[in-house]
Automatic annotation (TrEMBL):
<dbReference type="InterPro" id="IPR036412">
    <property type="entry name" value="HAD-like_sf"/>
</dbReference>
<dbReference type="GO" id="GO:0046872">
    <property type="term" value="F:metal ion binding"/>
</dbReference>
<dbReference type="GO" id="GO:0009298">
    <property type="term" value="P:GDP-mannose biosynthetic process"/>
</dbReference>
<dbReference type="GO" id="GO:0005829">
    <property type="term" value="C:cytosol"/>
</dbReference>
<feature type="binding site">
    <location>
        <position position="181"/>
    </location>
    <ligand>
        <name>alpha-D-mannose 1-phosphate</name>
    </ligand>
</feature>
<feature type="binding site">
    <location>
        <position position="128"/>
    </location>
    <ligand>
        <name>alpha-D-mannose 1-phosphate</name>
    </ligand>
</feature>
<keyword id="KW-0413">Isomerase</keyword>
<feature type="binding site">
    <location>
        <position position="10"/>
    </location>
    <ligand>
        <name>Mg(2+)</name>
    </ligand>
</feature>
<dbReference type="Pfam" id="PF03332">
    <property type="entry name" value="PMM"/>
</dbReference>
<feature type="binding site">
    <location>
        <position position="212"/>
    </location>
    <ligand>
        <name>Mg(2+)</name>
    </ligand>
</feature>
<protein>
    <recommendedName>
        <fullName>phosphomannomutase</fullName>
        <ecNumber>5.4.2.8</ecNumber>
    </recommendedName>
</protein>
<comment type="similarity">
    <text>Belongs to the eukaryotic PMM family.</text>
</comment>
<dbReference type="InterPro" id="IPR005002">
    <property type="entry name" value="PMM"/>
</dbReference>
<keyword id="KW-0479">Metal-binding</keyword>
<feature type="binding site">
    <location>
        <position position="179"/>
    </location>
    <ligand>
        <name>alpha-D-mannose 1-phosphate</name>
    </ligand>
</feature>
<feature type="active site" description="Proton donor/acceptor">
    <location>
        <position position="12"/>
    </location>
</feature>
<dbReference type="GO" id="GO:0006013">
    <property type="term" value="P:mannose metabolic process"/>
</dbReference>
């Protein structure tokens, strides 16, 4: 990471627990990193979720924010800071595409024998405009419940495999603690980072990636073929903190 011009991070389970606020320690580490590097955060989260979970808890100066780039919904959109957050691009799904995805989820639930939870917290399949996201217990489920629902991705592996058969022309990936994300074909974290690097004029070797879902089928794994050096933080947020502390304060 020492030679990287930009460091990109996943959000959930990497910088913060699933849909939980960025904590004070991580905020401090990121602000320190923004003083010496450009930083990108790419996630399946919507921009509204970025604002609530990440930006409202990031205590950096406006000058530091000019080094920060946000890529919601797995790179289907890009935001940069120029006195405020400006959308550089976004690839919204059409009404017809959304309906096709909703229908595919219902079909796959029946095919795989998936039983919807008796209590759904929020929305089971959420429309994020550029992406549809399934959350196994609902979009607003408590973290304590989410952590025990599918820690080894066994439930989501089955659903995701079935969805890929039903949805040619779309990208299906696993992320967060309970999520499956569906975007247009070719729109994934590799797409988002490629667009960002092109915008900045950087080569893949000039970037570095940190994520918890770099396993096959995970929504971080698409960055590996780009040739971007990476760190797999299998232990989640605590591993990311240790990695950043070592980089920032061990010289």
């Amino acid at each position: 990471m020492e030679n990287a011009k930009i460091v990109a991070f996943d959000l959930d389970q990497t910088l913060a627990e699933s849909k939980m606020p960025l904590d004070t320690e991580m905020s401090g580490l990121l602000c320190a990193l923004l003083a010496v590097k450009k930083v990108a955060v790419i996630s399946g989260a919507s921009f509204a979720q970025f604002q609530k979970q990440f930006l409202e808890n990031l205590s950096c100066s406006a000058g530091a924010l000019e080094n920060l780039y946000l890529l919601p919904t797995n790179g289907a959109s890009l935001y940069k800071y120029t006195g405020g957050w400006v959308c550089v691009y976004e690839h919204n799904l059409t009404t017809e595409e959304k309906q096709k995805i909703f229908d595919a989820f219902e079909k796959v639930f029946a095919q795989t024998g998936f039983i919807k939870p008796e209590k759904i917290y929020g929305t089971l399949v959420e429309d994020r405009e550029t992406q549809l996201t399934f959350s196994g217990l609902g979009s607003d489920a408590p973290l304590a419940l989410k952590e025990g629902w599918d820690p080894r991705h066994e439930k989501r592996d089955v659903l995701a495999a079935a969805l890929r058969k039903e949805l040619p022309g779309f990208t299906v990936s696993i992320g967060g603690a309970t999520s499956i994300d569906v975007t247009r074909e070719g729109i994934d974290k590799a797409f988002g980072l490629t667009e960002l690097l092109r915008t900045l004029g950087y080569m893949p070797k000039e970037a570095f990636y940190v994520g918890d879902a770099l396993f096959p089928g995970g929504n971080d794994a698409s960055v590996i073929p780009l040739g971007i050096p990476y760190k797999y933080v299998e232990g989640g947020v605590k591993d990311t903190k240790a990695f950043l502390r070592a980089f920032l304060f061990t010289k």
